[in-house]
Fold Helix-turn-helix domain-containing protein.
Amino acid sequence: MSIIGTNIRNTRNKKNLSLKELAKKSGVTEQYLADIESGKKIPNQKLIESISKALGISVDLLEPSYFSQYFEEDDEKNEPKAPKHKITDKKPIEEDNAISSALSKAVRKIPVIDKMTSVKDFPNKNDIVDYKYEPVFQNKATNVPVGEFVYYIAQDNAMANSRILKGDLALVFITDSIRNGDIILYTERNKCYIRRIAFLEKEDILLYADNYEYQPILSSQRNINIMGKVVRVEFKI
């Protein structure tokens, strides 16, 4: 299911607009809009702007920032009160269990992969070579679906000018909400690549490196599987 498609459908229903009406206002066919809402097609940035204008809302309401849920400050009234210290006669094993439980909420386990043999149930357990532990932001991991992030070990120097070198760990946010110029992780013919993406006319896309030694690839959305966007990189020193 597409995040953008779901937001478009929900907003359209709230405004009592039919598929046909919104499609006409947005300059696309009714079937194409239906495919976007169902997640079969990913709209480019220009089309997202057209649809948001037709709905009379901000683009951010269709394509919200994916980091907002982690860094958004909580209201003071929602802040948990510090627990009072008290003497307890609980057994050490119960205390250890409590500490383990607290630590499990303070960090999250993110899989590390270096290939992709299947796009089903991504990341596939057979492709996982390691795990990294990341701190939880603002104690909000309990509301975040498991498997939202994955680390991918870069296999080439195609994105060297973006400071992603072979062997570096690229943190990938698993999403289908992709914008022009995003660095994405995608598969084509059972091989993984990290490249920038540019949406062209219809379903055509350009996948390009920022290292001149690697040639750009003209392809179609139908020929690739976009797994997510690179949001951070960890490199060796």
